[in-house]
């Protein structure tokens, strides 16, 4: 399997839940509001023998020419948006769900950004996010997917096409889920925002931004031990330095 990080850049985020671009060479974190977190926004593409998979969809920002940034990142790696066959959604916070749709400015309509893909989202996460709304969720980013023929509404734990496992974890958001892709002896694990950075896997850390920080910490420890035993490759959505780590 081939892993392609689709970095959208570094950002700081504070209590306002706004993502402010951060230049690693020029900007000073100390000049940002107290408590600001420095994070990468980094969806992934995973190319298997069966599929081209996108995992989470980023902020949904456009390039200066109007191209959706996640589309451009894929094109830079030789993959067209029409080639993507599956989109896996861990949860619907705005930094993970912003690229679900692409808006046509001429027609003033939005379309699923990967027209030939099947999207996989948790049914209860959608319902919760629609009810909760701002500041963590931008309803306009995902409203409508619950009624789309391209979307499979997942419930509980299970498997997709006999090689992608999904587990509902909660802990970070109401019905956050994680994915394990297995092919030819290789195992790729995406822990979403329960396991967003390498350093958090190595330390006992309770995050205030999690719905249940203690549960997130315990899950990270469990996955880290299992990953070491089973030689997982970890994908870290918010890690500035290490997007991919393999045992």
CATH architecture label: 4-Layer Sandwich
Decide which structural class fits the backbone: alpha+beta
Largest sheet: 6 strands, mixed
Rg from alpha-carbon coordinates: 17 Å
Q: Compute the number of helices.
A: 6
Instruction: Name the strands of the widest sheet in spatial order.
Output: 1-5-6-7-10-11
What does this structure look like?
It contains six helices and 17 strands. The chain is globular and about 50 Å long. The mean pLDDT is 95. 42% of the residues are buried. The chain has helices spanning 69-75, 94-97, 123-132, 139-142, 198-202, 213-230, and strands spanning 2-5, 10-13, 19-21, 37-40, 44-47, 52-55, 86-88, 101-104, 109-112, 118-122, 151-154, 158-160, 164-168, 177-183, 186-190, 232-235, 244-246. The strands form four sheets. A six-stranded mixed beta sheet has the order 1-5-6-7-10-11. Strands 12-13-14-15-16-17 form a six-stranded mixed beta sheet. Strands 3-2-4 form a three-stranded antiparallel beta sheet, with no helix packed on it. The longest helix is centred in the C-terminal third of the chain and has 18 residues, at 213-230. It starts with a strand and ends with a strand. The chain is α+β, with helices and mostly antiparallel strands and 247 residues long. It has a single domain (2-183), classed as Ribonuclease Z/Hydroxyacylglutathione hydrolase-like (Metallo-beta-lactamase, Chain A).
Give a short overview.
This protein is α+β, with helices and mostly antiparallel strands and 247 residues long. The protein has helices at 69-75, 94-97, 123-132, 139-142, 198-202, 213-230, and strands at residues 2-5, 10-13, 19-21, 37-40, 44-47, 52-55, 86-88, 101-104, 109-112, 118-122, 151-154, 158-160, 164-168, 177-183, 186-190, 232-235, 244-246.
């Amino acid at each position: 399997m081939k892993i392609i990080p689709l970095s959208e850049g570094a950002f700081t985020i504070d209590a306002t839940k706004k993502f402010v671009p951060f230049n690693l060479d020029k900007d000073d974190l100390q000049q940002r509001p107290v408590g600001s977190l420095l994070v990468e926004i980094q969806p992934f593409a995973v190319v298997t023998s069966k599929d081209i998979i996108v995992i989470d969809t980023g902020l949904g920002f456009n390039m200066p020419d109007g191209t959706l940034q996640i589309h451009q990142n894929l094109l830079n790696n030789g993959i067209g948006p029409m080639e993507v066959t599956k989109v896996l959604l861990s949860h619907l916070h705005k930094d993970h769900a912003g690229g679900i749709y692409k808006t046509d400015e001429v027609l003033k309509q939005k379309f699923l950004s990967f027209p030939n893909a099947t999207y996989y989202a948790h049914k209860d996460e959608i319902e919760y996010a629609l009810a909760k709304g701002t500041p963590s969720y931008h309803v306009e980013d995902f409203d409508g997917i619950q009624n789309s023929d391209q979307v499979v509404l997942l419930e509980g734990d299970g498997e997709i096409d006999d090689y992608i496992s999904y587990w509902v974890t909660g802990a970070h958001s109401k019905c956050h889920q994680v994915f394990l892709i297995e092919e030819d002896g290789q195992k790729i694990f995406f822990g979403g925002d329960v396991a967003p950075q390498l350093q958090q896997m190595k330390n006992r850390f309770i995050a205030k931004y999690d719905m249940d920080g203690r549960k997130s910490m315990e899950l990270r420890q469990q996955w880290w031990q299992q990953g070491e035993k089973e030689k997982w490759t970890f994908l870290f959505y918010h890690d500035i330095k290490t997007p991919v780590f393999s045992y």
